[in-house]
Amino acid sequence: MPRLRLALAQTNPVVGDFARNAAGIVDAVRTARARGADLVATGEMAISGYPIEDLASRPSFLRTARAAVERLARTLDDEGLGDVAVVVGHPDGPFAPRPVDVSTAPTAIAKNCASVLQHGRVVATTAKHHLPNYSVFDEYRVFIPGDDLLVARIADVDVAVVICEDLWRDGGPVARVLGADAGLLLVVNASPWVADKDEVRLPLVTRRATESDTVVAYVNIVGGQDDLVFDGDSVVVDETGRVVARAPQFREHLLLVDVDPAPATGPVVTEHVQRVSLDTPNTTPGELAGRPPLPRDVAELPDDRQAIWDALVLGTRDYVRKNGFRSVVLGLSGGIDSAVCAAIAVDAIGAEHVFGVSMPSRWSSTHSRSDADDVAARLGLQYRTEPIADLVAPFDAQLGLTGLAAENIQARVRALILMGLSNLDGHLVLTTGNKTELAVGYSTIYGDSVGGFAPIKDVPKTIVWALARWRNAAAASRGETEPIPENSISKPPSAELREGQEDQDSLPPYEVLDAILEQYVTRAQGAADIVAMGFDAATVAEVTRLVDRSEWKRRQGAIGPKTSGMAFGRDRRLPITYRPSPTIDG
Amino acid sequence: MPRLRLALAQTNPVVGDFARNAAGIVDAVRTARARGADLVATGEMAISGYPIEDLASRPSFLRTARAAVERLARTLDDEGLGDVAVVVGHPDGPFAPRPVDVSTAPTAIAKNCASVLQHGRVVATTAKHHLPNYSVFDEYRVFIPGDDLLVARIADVDVAVVICEDLWRDGGPVARVLGADAGLLLVVNASPWVADKDEVRLPLVTRRATESDTVVAYVNIVGGQDDLVFDGDSVVVDETGRVVARAPQFREHLLLVDVDPAPATGPVVTEHVQRVSLDTPNTTPGELAGRPPLPRDVAELPDDRQAIWDALVLGTRDYVRKNGFRSVVLGLSGGIDSAVCAAIAVDAIGAEHVFGVSMPSRWSSTHSRSDADDVAARLGLQYRTEPIADLVAPFDAQLGLTGLAAENIQARVRALILMGLSNLDGHLVLTTGNKTELAVGYSTIYGDSVGGFAPIKDVPKTIVWALARWRNAAAASRGETEPIPENSISKPPSAELREGQEDQDSLPPYEVLDAILEQYVTRAQGAADIVAMGFDAATVAEVTRLVDRSEWKRRQGAIGPKTSGMAFGRDRRLPITYRPSPTIDG
């Protein structure tokens, strides 16, 4: 007979919208209670959204967050849900600032917390101990670390509560779980997705379960927040390491499971452990006494290509919706990048809200125009053609533009068309550049780079092709029209800004280029190291030079969903002003 | 009889250019030795430039840096300068990474170091203990903290060496100086300038001197690096707190001074203290034995307005030069912002390298055109007029642009002109927006915001006016032509994108606006707090709404020199996707 019915609320919060986020939690608790749950847990910062960045340094934001948590406790009780124990993630503060220098700069005055609510009250609060300050995370900047482990007793089980990064580090709270008599380790997370993250996250959860002989319940938020996509993938693993429940990725879900952790026997470690006792709703008589059995709820993960696609779709949808847009506009060149972005946008918000514009020039090939028409027809999106010749010619004539200037003006005139349509009709402009282009600066700033969101900015060109083929195959397998024209996939890529131009005139083959970029950008290897791996020295020198000198363009680029371990943006912070030295003394 | 002749080398490094930076240090040591110095010190990271950001996580960069320091030691010796003790700032590594999660993200593998060089060798190395991770600093992200205090004995004086932030914190190395028998505290810095920073920096140096009864020598780098301007202002304070030497702000300088610290008597504290003994060049016979006396070298600081101006000029000049540009181009509207930016550019790189473009539209007033002509004439810059009517009309006609779309297209056509001229002639484009505009989004993205550098992006509108008046007065006092037309200063500001438009139609008076922004942006106060200070509630609501919704524009904006305690950019990291809540429960 399982001891505890647990519900993990995998919600999709909006940063700052406490009322909406709290309402979603109330809904989850209502459903969970109706299904007999004793304990409901949300992800990290589920009431505020995550990451809140420097909002954590605003006293007014923190006061609002604290009030929102207290109000949530009261609301749950007012709605007859107060007997359920609810663990909710939230920022807390303001606390006395950690001393820094005399600057007026943001200062850590907040903690990254999880609180237990019951019977209308905040029963206990714990704070994240390990503050990630690498990759996209700046938590050491804005948070003060916690120093205790919260253990809440419910249904005779000691439930230890830790937050996200605390699970990943061997020291700190997780170490105390071993000695704290906990039967259940509840981990409250806001863990952004990157490709293959499940290959490390689940093994970690499993290892923690077996090494501490506890059931581990891992609850994550879901949804897009600027450049991050949270995938959910909340999971419960028993003390033998077996997955007993798993939520789907990339959508909201309420995951219910009965668990049977070892009952509390008495603590071995008491230092830095905060203990509270909770009522157990289902040990008292009442409507929940005869609990219906739960169906097994263990989601299958999508394959690698689908996971990327789903992440891009969710990231795009949430950027559009959470920022109050209803529609997007993008240029359709007939090439692979814009076709893939259009398909993502249609999957995200529906073809009726996606506006494609073909903007042919004197250099545009017949196939470009027909491929753009074909994409629009296959996706059924809103479509118009705006030739640019009559808009470009006056610039060429007045300014005497030649060479690169004459090439770029075409891309920039297209930008003005898209921004004009955006201003007229309120569309969000999507920019369609891929990671490879962004890396080497193979784009026109204030031209094809304009837009508020860049769906494939963290997808290398070689993966863009693979995604196109995957998406077509998925459509075919469902008997649907393949969204990407075969010709857009198979033809040689070209910016078509001059006669007969092809990308491969200026760049190495994309397979080579992406392999070098993987080393230089993602793995931070130096040029000499990359040459030592067997790449052509002149090619490596040229590629690294292009990457370095494009930093200023990237800095002014739109955000887009992170899919890799090293996305351009806050994941990779490099100076613009930088003169790389040849290696000194080898 | 002073015991020690000290030289502080206030150099202007370029990030990554080890050979150039080292050559500058060799030059400084050569001059210092010729003038009889025993000990020469550079600023923090003087050999690599600062900040190096995630370059600190590249093993190849660190290997190059280590080789550069070793080569510098050998070069000094080879050039007959090896008897002088040289303290140089540099990154060091790679070290074993500080454990983080499984991401491939940058990981701290470096230390922020200072080494003592003598006789061709690296005699000792110490690492920065306190790693700033607030404001513009991300040092906890990329560095591993040091854990010892270096004490180098020279001329019978114990010289304690600490690095920048270590001076600001009461614990750590500075606390050990008290017990370490040091007569001289040498602080190696890369301390960026902000307005009024001297009002806290010098008192801190003075307090350290008196509280530890040591001479304090504070050496800072100088120069622009992306959005930061290092002002130098290297200073030496004796144990009574008296300033005995001070370098000028905003330029390179070699500061020599004779000091007479208490001789070493023997350490009280030995734990976490690394001790080395150095030769003293001037206690041995030789060319330096009969040292000429030094003139007093105590620079006066510029007044507040001049300090801002000098910082903007240096930041602009160094961005241009360090990035390999020879010239800049900017639009001249006849308004105050573009006039001030043009004057900064001329002061930075000379009128012959500054290209101004007047781009009148059908809405441009007669005074706009004549004021633009007047600015160009007063500054003597390169000037042309490119009317936009014939470029705008085809867009209006083809797309049926009206309202905001028709206003924005004008600003965007101007952007295409400037970018076209940049592509043709290799100019860097300067964008002329001020901090107030940037805060409330009162600009056209991909229009007047285009450019690689934004000289006044951290200068509020009210200060732009003050700077213009100051610069004119400075010119008048030297008998020069006042660079800014009086009419550009005194007329009501207007974007002139429609008939009769004035800024104050859409915005509160700039005095009120800047006062609200000071609270909301710089001091991170909430709207309710600002209303409680006495500002009009509707105005506060509107201003904070405008600031919040302009985040995506700011994120795509050019960098420019930080002048305040809270500049837009990495100083203030906020989500784009953010729905501010009304305060809950008050």
What would you say about this model in short?
The first copy, chain A, is built from 19 helices and 19 strands. Chain A is of the alpha/beta class and 586 residues long.
What helical percentage do the residues of chain A reach? 25-40%
Kindly estimate the percentage of residues of chain A that lie in beta strands according to DSSP.
15-25%
By helix and strand content of chain A, what is the structural category? alpha/beta
Global Rg of chain A: 26 Å
Largest interface, with counts of residues having CB < 8 Å to the other chain, equals:
A-B, 116 and 116 residues
How can the largest sheet of chain A be summarized?
7 strands, mixed
Give start-end ranges of low-pLDDT stretches of chain A.
101-105
Distance between the termini of chain A: 68 Å
* Count of extended strands of chain A: 19
Q: Tell me, rounded to a whole number, the average pLDDT of chain A.
A: 93
Quaternary assembly: homodimer
Shape of chain A: elongated
For the biggest β-sheet of chain A, the strand order reads 13-12-9-8-7-6-15
Number of helices of chain A: 19
Topology:
Two copies of one chain form a homodimer.
Chain A: E1 4-10, H1 18-34, E2 39-42, H2 59-78, E3 85-92, E4 111-118, E5 121-127, H3 139-142, E6 149-154, E7 157-163, H4 165-168, H5 173-179, E8 184-189, H6 198-212, E9 215-220, E10 222-225, E11 228-231, E12 235-237, E13 243-246, E14 253-259, E15 273-277, H7 304-322, E16 328-331, H8 336-349, E17 354-358, H9 366-379, E18 382-385, H10 389-399, H11 403-425, E19 428-429, H12 435-440, H13 461-477, H14 486-490, H15 503-506, H16 510-522, H17 527-532, H18 537-549, H19 551-555
Parallel strand pairs in A: 1-2, 2-3, 6-15, 7-8, 8-9, 16-17, 16-19, 17-18
Antiparallel strand pairs in A: 1-14, 3-4, 4-5, 6-7, 9-12, 10-11, 12-13
